[in-house]
Amino acid sequence: xxxLTPVLFTVAAAVPVAADPDLSWDQLPPPVQLxxxxxxxxxxxxxxxxxSAEGRAVxxxxxxxxxxxxxxxxxxxxxxxxxxxxxxxxxxxxxxxLAIERTWPGxxxxxxxxxxxxxxxxxxxxxxxxxxxxxxxxxxxGEVLVDRGGGGE
Length: 153
What we know:
It is built from 2 helices and 9 strands. The chain has 153 residues and is mainly beta. A hairpin with a 7-residue loop joins strand 2 and strand 3. The radius of gyration is 17 Å and the shape is elongated. The N terminus is likely disordered.
């Protein structure tokens, strides 16, 4: 059995980021309101934005629940497209932590978000390796989907 020790990573303190809402609750289409109300406690006090892309209307609800920043992306028809939740490194599976340590020794994890997009689950990780910022996205199976930074973008 592999045992993790707290010396694998240094995790930077998470600083809450206030949402910069550009829409009010009343400006959201009714199907979007319903999807958000179904998935977010106290949705009226969230921040909302329009993150439309590629000709598709998409809305984002940003909120803090139990001290964690979370976001939900919803299509105009109410379909939930993506969920993100800030997590700590210690909440990630041990195999993923070990893979990060093997691939990027000495990495300092600055921010970790758990994402669900359809049936795909992944972690978006902002880290510093040797003083150089790097952003990676890793599936829960350990596959690196995105690796930006470190001079090899």
